[in-house]
Amino acid sequence: KNPVAAVRATAEALERGAVDAERAARLARVLGDSSAKLDRLVTQFLELARADAGMPNEERSRVALADLVRGITARMQEDPRYGDVTFVADVDGDPSVIGVAHRLDAVVRELLENGASFAGAGGRVEVTLRAEPKTRMAWLRVHDTGPGIAEADLPQVFARFFTTRGARRGTGLGLALVHSVCRAHGGDVSVSSSEGATFTVQLPLAG
Predict the structure, then answer these.
(1) Predicted confidence band at 136 (pLDDT cuts at 50, 70, 90)?
(2) Cross-sheet strand order for the sheet of 124-132
(3) What's the maximum distance between 2 C-alpha atoms anywhere in the chain?
(4) How far, in Å, CA of 10 to CA of 26, rounded?
(5) Long-range contacts: 21-28, Cβ < 8 Å, 24+?
(6) pLDDT value of position 167
(7) Distance CA 73, CA 78 (A)
(8) What would the mean pLDDT of 57-72 be, rounded to a whole number?
(9) Residues 94-121, buried b or exposed e (16+ Cβ, 10 A)?
(10) Distance of CA 20 to CAs 28, 41, 77, 147, 184, Å?
């Protein structure tokens, strides 16, 4: 409710009377920030609803996970927001899956951004991609060198609105969306914590 409360407070401040230019600029920034947060929240809700429904009417194609992982890892390493974090991609082979490319892109990006936010300055985010021929599954692991996840919090990690990143850095919907997208692709995602956090995605290999 934070963005809504900010919008309401701003409206009440304007309703009370004229404001000087400096205060008007501050109120404009509040409205801009709050509307952006609301837009992100609504967008995530819509994406989550589509994923929960199995992503109907979304075109699926063969997606090369190796290219996807390498590309996102390289972009994250060049992102100035994560200049103090080291990203490492360990890719074996060229596993492919049948899926919605931009949804899988969002899954990998969310896991890397999540890892980077906890790894912090001087930390590492390690991405490992493997194919398991016997089970016909692709395994993607994202490990960060952050403080890890409290044991009591592990069962709630994929719950909607659960976040330990703080209101300014997360909505609590990102990992819920990761979970739903993986399930919609016939796969799953799990989390463990030991000397950092490790998220493991399983997806069926393309035939």
Answers:
(1) very high
(2) 86-91, 124-132, 137-144, 197-204, 188-193
(3) 71
(4) 10
(5) none
(6) 47
(7) 9
(8) 95
(9) ebbbebbbebbebbbbbbbbbbbbbbee
(10) 12, 31, 43, 46, 52
Cα separation, 6 vs 92, in Å, equals: 48
| Residue 77 backbone dihedrals phi, psi, to 5 degrees | -65, -30
CA 33-36-40 angle, 5° bins: 140
Place of tokens 């739903």: 180
State both tokens at 71.
Answer: 């590309």
Segment 155-162 mean pLDDT: 90
Residue-level pLDDT at 80:
92
Percent of the chain scored above 70 by pLDDT? Answer: 96
Write down the pLDDT at residue 169.
56
Top pLDDT among 12 and 127 is at 127
Tokens of 151: 């044991």
Contact 77, 87 (CB under 8 A): yes
Q: How many CA atoms lie within 13 A of 155 on its CB side?
A: 1
What does the DSSP assignment read for 53-121?
TT-TT---EEEEHHHHHHHHHHHHHH-GGGTT-EEEEEE-S--EEEE-HHHHHHHHHHHHHHHHHHH-T
**Quick one: pLDDT at residue 39?**
77
